[in-house]
Amino acid sequence: SFKAGMDNLEATDESSFSVDEVSNIIKESVEDVIGTAHYSHNKVGQWTSSVIEQCVNQLTRLGKPFKYIVTCLVMQKNGAGLNTASSCYWDSQTDGSCIIKWENKSMYVIVSVFGLAV
Amino acid sequence: MQDEPVATEQPQQQQQQQKEGEEVANTYVIRPNFESKFRPLLAKPVIHEVLVERLTDKAYDKEATSGLCKELTDEIKARLRANGFERYKFVVQVAIGEQRGQGVKMACRCLWDSDSDNYVQDIFMNDSLFCVAVAFGVFHY
């Protein structure tokens, strides 16, 4: 019976990265913290910190055996272009990422969450 | 049936006998020792070289830059892999933007084992573009 328990640890729903759940967490956090606010140089630091903090707290609550990396980029809209890319060396069966691009009238927000199985 | 009590009392001896005289030692590394840790001091020059090599004298061009962005991440990841850091998983993120006087802020937070995991970042700027590259190294137990 010990061996059967060990097999279950390998691939259950609980220990794989769920893109949908994480995507909802990110969208809620950004809506909550920024919403319809107008870009303000003084507040940007606070916004990025709050968005990330909220994401990390919700991710912890999922209770999955993952290490998380959360990044947040906020850019003022003024016609300039922006490109982002990411490349990962990981175990593609257990690890995953979720990248959300969000915008309101005055700024772009890109949040990415990478989940790496322990 | 009489063997069972003997087995529980002296399991190590029995294992050793089963391996025909080989020594049983715990050699699987569960924490990186200092030399094999992902140290920012070792990894930063790698990223810096890639950025300087590929971006000096480049101007922001909306078609070419997205391809360039992807190439940079792959290049940085390949060089970090080549530099050792066994047992580490890598996540590399690169953002390239046009310089037009707009405000930008990028932040990150990680939920990990701060003893074995670390990150390294570099920023490159010229007159027409700015580039932020971050590489995270996460130890795989």
UniProtKB/TrEMBL annotation, chain A:
<dbReference type="GO" id="GO:0005737">
    <property type="term" value="C:cytoplasm"/>
</dbReference>
<keyword id="KW-0493">Microtubule</keyword>
<keyword id="KW-0206">Cytoskeleton</keyword>
<keyword id="KW-0243">Dynein</keyword>
<dbReference type="GO" id="GO:0007018">
    <property type="term" value="P:microtubule-based movement"/>
</dbReference>
<keyword id="KW-0963">Cytoplasm</keyword>
<dbReference type="GO" id="GO:0005868">
    <property type="term" value="C:cytoplasmic dynein complex"/>
</dbReference>
<comment type="similarity">
    <text>Belongs to the dynein light chain Tctex-type family.</text>
</comment>
<dbReference type="InterPro" id="IPR005334">
    <property type="entry name" value="Tctex-1-like"/>
</dbReference>
<protein>
    <recommendedName>
        <fullName>Dynein light chain Tctex-type 1</fullName>
    </recommendedName>
</protein>
<keyword id="KW-0505">Motor protein</keyword>
<dbReference type="InterPro" id="IPR038586">
    <property type="entry name" value="Tctex-1-like_sf"/>
</dbReference>
<dbReference type="GO" id="GO:0005874">
    <property type="term" value="C:microtubule"/>
</dbReference>
<dbReference type="GO" id="GO:0045505">
    <property type="term" value="F:dynein intermediate chain binding"/>
</dbReference>
<dbReference type="Pfam" id="PF03645">
    <property type="entry name" value="Tctex-1"/>
</dbReference>
TrEMBL record, chain B:
<dbReference type="GO" id="GO:0045505">
    <property type="term" value="F:dynein intermediate chain binding"/>
</dbReference>
<comment type="similarity">
    <text>Belongs to the dynein light chain Tctex-type family.</text>
</comment>
<dbReference type="GO" id="GO:0007018">
    <property type="term" value="P:microtubule-based movement"/>
</dbReference>
<dbReference type="GO" id="GO:0005737">
    <property type="term" value="C:cytoplasm"/>
</dbReference>
<dbReference type="InterPro" id="IPR038586">
    <property type="entry name" value="Tctex-1-like_sf"/>
</dbReference>
<dbReference type="GO" id="GO:0005868">
    <property type="term" value="C:cytoplasmic dynein complex"/>
</dbReference>
<dbReference type="Pfam" id="PF03645">
    <property type="entry name" value="Tctex-1"/>
</dbReference>
<feature type="region of interest" description="Disordered">
    <location>
        <begin position="1"/>
        <end position="22"/>
    </location>
</feature>
<protein>
    <recommendedName>
        <fullName>Tctex1 domain-containing protein 2</fullName>
    </recommendedName>
</protein>
<dbReference type="InterPro" id="IPR005334">
    <property type="entry name" value="Tctex-1-like"/>
</dbReference>
